[in-house]
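INTERNAL AUDIT FORM
Audit reference: QA-55
Scope: verify that the stored structure record matches its stored sequence.
Auditor: D.O.
Record contents follow.
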Amino acid sequence: GKIPETSAIWFSSMDNPLVPPSEWENIKKGLEEKGRRHIWEQEYVCNPFDGDQTSSEIRYPEFSRVKHLKTPFRIPPDWKRFRFMDWGMNHPTACLWAALSSDFYLYIYDEMKIQGKSVDAVVELINRRTGGQSIEFSILDPSCWRKESDGVSIADRFNRCGLKVTPGKREDRNYSGASLVKSYLSPVTG
C-alpha cells in the first residue's frame, strides 16, 4: 500500500494444487513427532514468525539469547578479525565484524545496515566504523562478482574503493551458509 498500484501477496506451500493435502499432513505429522514444528511453520506454511511475532528466531531456532549473547568485553589484540558483507542498493547492505578467539569461538562484535548508498559511500562508512582495526579479510556475497551492464562487478567497485574483498562460498543444494551458521549455534560434540 505504500507504492501506488502495488500489493503484497502471501502464499503458503500448501496452496500448490499439484501436491495432495494428504502429503502435507504426512510432512506436518513427521515434523511434529520430531519436535520440529518451527520448520513446518517457517518452510511449509511460510510463516517466518511462527506465531510469536519476534524476529530473534526467524531463521535460526538454534539461537538462544542466554547461550549466545555475552557480556561485553574487550577483544584481545591477538584475535583475528574479519568482516562479512552482503551488498544491496535497493535491499540493505549488511556488514558484520567478527573476531576469532584462540579457542576458535567466533564473536560477532559489530554490525551495520546501510540502504540506498553507492559502493564508494558504503566503503567509506565501513572503513570509518572499522577505524584502525586490522582485518584479516572481508568476505562478500559471491553474487557480487557478476559483471554489471558496464562490465564492472560490485566486487571490482569495492576493490577500486580500497576495500579488498574475498568471495564467500556459493550455496548449493548440499551446502548452505544457513546450515553452517546453524552448526555454529548448536555444535555437535563427540
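Auditor finding: record pair retrieved intact. Residues 48-57 have pLDDT under 50 and may be disordered.
Action required: none
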